[in-house]
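Record filed below.
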Amino acid sequence: MQVIQKPILSEKAMKYTADGRYVFQCVPSTNKIEIKKEVEKIFEVKVRSVRTLNVKPKLTRRFTRTGVLRGHTARRKKAYITLMPGYNIELTGVDTRSE
């Protein structure tokens, strides 16, 4: 089962990468232990800590000719991963380290 769905590359998430923290969107039913094992296996790094939060779905409304369609966005889980010193994950494919 794929635990990590995708990395979150927002401006706030990219600010955390300087401190060795990365943000991923995960399957809502997973726990911190599964997320930690998956990150260590995929990226070959050592994880110091995992913090998770559940993002509640937002209500949506769309007005059409036939009436109002109501629904909601999908429920998500975000995981904030902190790595041990000396490890990093290359998410964008661009090397940001100065040589």
The first strand starts at residue 4 and ends at 7. The mean pLDDT is 91.
